[in-house]
Amino acid sequence: ARLFLRLWEEKLWWASSWDQSALAETILEIIGAEVATARPWTGWRYDHRCLQATLPFPTGLFSFGRYCDCWHWAIRSMVGDYRMRRSQLVGFVDPEMLAVNYIPNNLFHDHGFDLTRMYL
Length: 120
What we know:
This protein is mostly helical.
């Protein structure tokens, strides 16, 4: 849990990141390490390919949808399809059973990108 929080917190300050993409990329890293360790014969490793989708277009605009598409492809490749994902390190909530979308950046404006000030 501490490693997960440390990796997430490091990404909060990336120029092309925000709290949700920082969290999403951390999930991909942790699961990628799990898959590479638990199933080395597959040769699958998360190579941070989704990071490029966090960069802006030449116009300066971002497309969070582009990152989400890549994230869903990567997560499906590593731990399975929607509602069927299995990981030993990350627990997935079935969004059709319980809707959870906690966005601390939007709730606590004075967090200063400190996870403890986001009440996590």
